[in-house]
Amino acid sequence: MSPTVAVLGTGIMGSGMVRSLLRAGLEVTVWNRSTDKAKALADDGATVADSAAAAVRGADVVLTMLFDADAVADTMGPVLPEMGPDAVWAQCSTVGVDGTDRLAGLAAEHGVAFLDTPVVGTKQPAEKGELVVLVSGPPDAADQAAPVFEAIGSQTRRVGDDPGSASRLKLVVNAWLATVVNGVAQSVALAGDLGLDPQLFLDAISGQALDSPYAQLKGSGMVDGDFAPSFALDGVLKDAGLIREAAGTAGTGTGLLDAMIEKLRQASSDGHGEQDAAAVVEAYRAR
């Protein structure tokens, strides 16, 4: 029997995940603090709840996709008593190492099975059900939630039996993502400042070992000035802070992270925070 699913948080990522769940034939109830974002999913077949508590009642799997650990804790803390004794909480938001420990502890206080399940991918993979789902937590809970992961992702990577391992891996992945975005931004800005057409840079690396689909995607947005968000710059900035925190605890050098965070902060303070991360290019251009 297919699990019933509650999705709390229907922003760029959450809404795409909901549509993927519905395409897979799962029964989905949604909630979002901004109700308009949730109501838009009713036309796709989702049931829209008027509260987070109403959304989680009767759900077999509760999926959270919110901005940070505080938002998740504020949402889930009051509603955990509403979850059934066999329900599973799959926490997909990127909240870092300490945030995951905090949320796992909150779940344990209420006797709720907790899975640490951040996802790799942005807007388009979420819409297409092609995310990579990183999972750590009790194997029986992971088995129960497996149909949910199969609906939202093309791959499920089981990282460990204890919550936290998946979030650590997500930070590693997002460190690379931030490096690619900032590296492409610097080269696109440099090309323009040297009097070149920045498209020449993307053409020069196309199909070479230096190339990647993500570099071309973000680079094209930078060249065209198209910053429609698939991963908002402020989200990358938040994640970069979590990565630096984890790296500092682990003793890993943070020089590159420090430089990237400086540019992300500059772009955010210049008004690009809600735009796509590609907008960081504006912080690299000559002034």
Automatic annotation (TrEMBL):
The active site is at residue 170. Residues 4-157 form the 6-phosphogluconate dehydrogenase NADP-binding domain. It comes from the Bacteria. Keywords: NAD, Oxidoreductase. Gene3D superfamilies: N-(1-d-carboxylethyl)-l-norvaline Dehydrogenase, domain 2 (1.10.1040.10), NAD(P)-binding Rossmann-like Domain (3.40.50.720). Residues 164-284 form the 3-hydroxyisobutyrate dehydrogenase-like NAD-binding domain. GO terms for molecular function: NAD binding; NADP binding; oxidoreductase activity. Belongs to the HIBADH-related family. This is 3-hydroxyisobutyrate dehydrogenase. It comes from Pseudonocardia sediminis.
